[in-house]
């Protein structure tokens, strides 16, 4: 029962994180590129961040709690020794990559973002969205035994 409650919070956070990024990649980014207007991306970022970042934190905390239920404890991370642990370790690597990219976007990409040169932001948005969808697909594999 407890696992199921944690899973619901995990799925709610995944909905916000993955859904937000898909909306950004499919709707907001093409509009910003078409209108050559970086402020469209900046506006979305300022609105999404207050819900997106907490949802990433919820994904991390609930993911680790569920990993412990599968007996994938801290000492077993990144050993790639069984099917479930493999999925969890890959998810952790992708999560750390996402956090690193978010920090880069915050400090390097967005402060210098110009309407004439949106490629760096475009690259980051597409990459983080692909990672988010990959995390979702990996999550769905756990109930069928992992990788
Ligand atoms: C962007 C980040 C993430 C997304 C979008 C995501 C998404 C998902 C999804 C969609 C499921 C499927 C649940 C089901 O089959 O009912 C899942 C399950 C799971 N996720 Fe994640 N997840 C993320 C991050 C993490 C992290 C960082 C961890 C571990 C450290 C983790 C651990 C798990 C575990 C253990 C399950 C299996 C739950 C179960 O079916 O009992 N997830 N995740």
Automatic annotation (TrEMBL):
Entry's transmembrane regions: 6-30, 51-70, 90-111, 123-144
Domain of life (superkingdom): Bacteria
Keywords, ordered alphabetically: Membrane, Transmembrane, Transmembrane helix
The protein's name in its UniProt record: Copper resistance protein CopD
């Amino acid at each position: 029962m407890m696992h199921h409650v944690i899973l619901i919070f995990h799925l709610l956070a995944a909905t916000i994180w993955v859904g937000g990024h898909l909306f950004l990649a499919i709707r907001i980014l093409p509009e910003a590129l078409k209108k050559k207007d970086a402020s469209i991306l900046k506006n979305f970022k300022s609105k999404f961040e207050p819900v997106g970042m907490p949802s990433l934190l919820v994904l991390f905390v609930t993911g680790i709690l569920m990993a412990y239920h599968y007996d994938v404890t801290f000492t077993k991370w990144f050993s790639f020794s069984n099917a479930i642990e493999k999925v969890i370790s890959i998810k952790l690597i992708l999560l750390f990559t996402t956090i690193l990219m978010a920090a880069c976007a915050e400090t390097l990409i967005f402060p210098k973002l110009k309407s004439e040169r949106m490629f760096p932001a475009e690259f980051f948005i597409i990459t983080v969205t692909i990672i988010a969808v990959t995390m979702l697909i990996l999550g769905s594999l756990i109930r069928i035994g992992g990788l």
